[in-house]
Amino acid sequence: MTDLAVLSGAGKRVRRAAVDWTGIAFLAGLAVVILLPLIVTAVWAFAEVWRFPAIVPQRMGLGYWQDTLSRNDVWTALWLSLGITTTVTAISAAICFPAAYAFARLDFPGRNLLFLAFLSVQAFPKFGLIVATATIFLTLHLVGTFWGVVLIQLVGTLLYMIWIPVSAFQGVDRRLEEAARDVGATPMRVFWSITLPQALPTLFAAILITFVSTFYETDAAWLIGLPNVRTMPMVMISFINNALEVQYGAVLFVFLWVPSFLLMLAARRVMGADAFARGLGG
Amino acid sequence: MAQVRLSGIAKTFGKVTALDAMDLVIDDGELVCLLGPSGSGKSTLLRIIGGFETPSAGAIAIDGVDVTGLPPERRPTAMVFQSHALWSHMTVHGNIAFGLKLRRLPKSEIRDRVERVLDLVGLAGYGGRLPSQLSGGQQQRVALARSLVIEPKILLLDEPFASLDQHLRERLRDEVRDIQQRLGITAVFVTHGQDEALAISDRIVVLADGRMQQVGRPGEIYAEPKTAFVAGFIGAMNMLDGLLADGEIAASGLRLAAEGSGPARLAIRPEDIALSEPADGRAATVRRMIDFGAHVVIDSALADGTHLRIQTDKAIRVAPGERIGIRVDRWTVFTEDGEPRRYRSDTLRSFRDVRYA
Ligand SMILES: Nc1ncnc2c1ncn2[C@@H]1O[C@H](COP(=O)(O)OP(=O)(O)OP(=O)(O)O)[C@@H](O)[C@H]1O
Ligand SMILES: [Mg+2]
């Protein structure tokens, strides 16, 4: 008995000794780089007075929340941003998903070239591309319009909305499709009943990434949208640039960060972390 | 009811010839095994029958109807894939019912048929599970059930149990044979396990390099291989390179009666060799003895070092390095051209003489 106890105790000690210090160091580093700014900003959102030498704010409260959230331009911008983002994501999915399926499954001449063309949009210096587009949009009277912003942001979504779905469709085992044909399904039926459901979690990940990144897109929104179309990030930037108190920006940051973070968490729960990993080339 | 006729089937992928000049008739209710080494074209042939590949040449007819141009969903075939290929987003019931729903059968009938087929494969009560909640063997049974439920005329199985352990594999293949005979369906079973082929098939088709080497009943293929390849591939076999001359074949110091002249290959089954007193041209040196319990296998070396496998009585004991005499009861000589020639030693006759004396 005693012998056994000693042995198992020794076993535990060995296991405890194998602490992964490198891993912990990395984690600590990441925490400082990512979490610290988050925390500081979050604290700012609730600080009413916070002057330089103090480590914690002198006075906390919800005053700035009231100020910020009672502004009309904030709510207008929020609804506008949601409208633009939803439109962009929906159109992008409608264009890109069928294209992705074609790239993944069909073998047509010029396939690789076309695929490259889709992706190469991302290789241009983005700002230059937007400026060039802006000059074209000017002549088309698209600058400063809802559809102008939608169009330019659509271009920015192509990379993720093609790339991730292509690997999603490629990740569907051909034999699953063949098995469905085998028991009598037509190619169309196979797509709806087998291929699409199998690829869905990863497609959903692509939609989510596109939605969030489009919502926070600034360059195009700035050059094409302003002054008539002011999206949420534009409002945030103007708060900061116009030297209103830092708190306005911080409040909006927390206000927007919380829902998108919760959305991501929910998505992870629903489809499992591997859907993201698979989408990004797994 | 369902007869498959392949005429002149060939298939090339780019420059690779996967299949060539296949002529084969599979009779109604027959279970035919496609047997051959990796890359010999077994899967390709099966996929051509199932409609997943179109042959580059030739035609395929089922019950006299040409189906060469028909897609899989319009052929009376059903395939069981090696990787089971179950749809992970559907339950077991959903997987099996899918084919029936496509046929727009009434709900109650679908339920009955799914339950009956689950019963048949020994998985009653598993309908509500997801494929990921089943063991490998159970997953393969579901795949089998999914194919059987649509009542195919022809069942195609592509190494369905290759990923399972041996015990389970043996049990499932016996079950497949049992079900196939009970339902009276025609089946084509791809395997590269010769034991599997010998155990369950009515006929075996041996493939090598995309060509049919031999078609025959299991015992026939084992006892009378037509080519050196089949001889070496089915069952344990000693294959020796030899030279024919003066009514004898000489191979690695072994000399046996044979007609003809020139280079030839000598094939001897381990169980066709018995031990005797060493003599000139009839001797070997023991390297290792393997005791299988039911019999003993002696790995020995001939004069030039070539291995010779001998299967003999379980009571026999020899030591490494020991010199033993061998007596070959049956042997086959394959020449470059012409039919193989089979020989039996007269010791068999003398054995009979002893019995009837
Ligand atoms: N889609 C394809 N494209 C190109 N070559 C192929 C394709 N499918 C099969 N082949 C080639 O055809 C030949 C026969 O392949 P097949 O899959 O039929 O072999 P197999 O007998 O089933 O082998 P295994 O026992 O390894 O499954 C091989 O040389 C293979 O490389
Ligand atoms: Mg194969």
Largest interface: A-B, 17 and 24 residues
Overall shape of chain A: it is globular
Question: What letter string, H or E per element, gives the SSE order of chain B?
Answer: EEEHEEEHHHEHEHEEHHEEEEEEEEEEEH
Oligomer designation: heterodimer
Count of strand segments of chain B: 21
Q: What name does CATH use for the topology of the largest domain in chain B?
A: Rossmann fold
Proportion in β-strands of chain B? 35-45%
Q: Tell me, rounded to a whole number, the average pLDDT of chain A.
A: 78
What is the helix/strand order of chain A? HHEEHHHHHHHHHHH
CATH superfamily of the largest domain in chain B: P-loop containing nucleotide triphosphate hydrolases
What can you tell me about this protein's structure?
Chain B: This is ABC transporter ATP-binding protein. Chain B: One of its GO terms (molecular function) is transmembrane transporter activity. The complex is a heterodimer of chains A (282) and B (357). By secondary structure, chain A is mainly alpha-helical. Chain A has two domains: 17-61, no CATH class; 69-279, MetI-like fold. In chain A, 78% of the residues lie in helices and 2% in strands. Chain A is built from 13 helices and two strands, in the order ααββααααααααααα. Chain A has helices at residues 2-17, 21-46, 63-69, 72-105, 111-120, 126-139, 146-170, 174-182, 187-215, 219-225, 232-241, 246-271, 274-279, and strands at 47-49, 59-60. Chain A has a two-stranded antiparallel ribbon. In chain A, α7 crosses α9. The longest helix of chain A is centred in the first third of the chain and has 34 residues, at 72-105. Chain A is globular. Mean pLDDT of chain A is 78; it is low at 1-14. With 357 residues, chain B is α+β, with helices and mostly antiparallel strands. Chain B has two domains: 4-228, P-loop containing nucleotide triphosphate hydrolases (Rossmann fold, 3-Layer(aba) Sandwich), CATH 3.40.50; 236-356, Nucleic acid-binding proteins (OB fold (Dihydrolipoamide Acetyltransferase, E2P)). Chain B contains nine helices and 21 strands. Chain B has helices spanning 42-50, 92-102, 107-120, 136-148, 166-183, 194-200, 218-223, 228-233, 347-356, and strands at residues 4-13, 16-26, 31-35, 57-62, 65-66, 77-80, 154-158, 186-191, 203-208, 211-216, 238-245, 248-251, 254-257, 262-268, 273-276, 283-291, 296-301, 307-312, 323-328, 330-335, 341-344. A six-stranded mixed β-sheet of chain B has the order 6-7-8-3-9-10, sandwiched between helices. In chain B, α2 (92-102) crosses α3 (107-120). Mean pLDDT of chain B is 88; it is low at 347-357. Chains A and B meet through α8 and α9 of A and β6, α2 and α4 of B. Residues 42-43 of chain B line the site of magnesium ion.
